[in-house]
Amino acid sequence: MLSCRFRPSYDWAWVTYRGTIYFAGCPTDRPLNSPSSATVKLLQGIFDRFQDQSFFILRQRLFLNHQPSAMDLGMIRLVAKRWTNIGFSKENNEMNEPQDITSWQEFGKRDELFVESKLPRIRFTSSVDHIGSLEEASQALVELESQIPSAPARHQQARRIAAILTDHKGQVLSRSVQRAWLNKTLHAEVELMQNYFRQHGTGLPPHSTIYVSEQPCRMCAAMIEQMKPQGQSMQVHVPQRGRILLLAQVNLAEINKTSVKPHSL
Known about the structure:
Elements: H1 2-5, E1 10-17, E2 20-27, H2 38-49, H3 54-57, E3 62-64, H4 70-79, E4 83-85, E5 103-106, H5 134-145, E6 162-166, E7 172-177, H6 188-200, E8 209-212, H7 218-227, E9 235-238, E10 243-246
Helix pairs in contact: 4-7, 6-7
């Protein structure tokens, strides 16, 4: 029975492909502003370990035992499309495992928030520790972008996108560059949010600012929303495009539209 495999007090996400159930769990009592979940761990884990097969695995329907957050839906929309929340209520508590299952593969430890990547990291340096203007932010982003290597021929083109987080005084707190040609979920903003949480164990500090090379996609906008201080707006600057966005302008409502649709059993 699936409910016996997937213990209570955890959120679970899984997908079945060619006789294997790939799954990830995350504690239900995790911090509300953490940039991870069972769904995020599953999707990032699949891309991390199965670059060449990830497309085929994620053409299958995802199953969740919980209602996905906006952050979950943003990532599902980008890389997976279809999902079903089956829950583990009294009515379906005895749901049988799919037939012909020969193995189970878990991504990450269920008590930990992240799947530690086995992919190569991009080494970069920065001469900027403080940002006082959009011009300085633009120069700092260009410096980071220039250090993103070319992607191997068999992967999609490496887009040169970087992101920087500063506190209310302009002091740089974290930096990141995009690794999406290695793992489709590792946009610069996702790397920025997850790296900051790994280092500090908290959401974004009050009145902090994000500078990024391009306007955040729905996935990234939703993860920033997950991390921002509750009750506060969040400014996302795109200095090279001459844009200053409030997070509310990044169309979080669009995450729930079109191709990300639940399915009832």
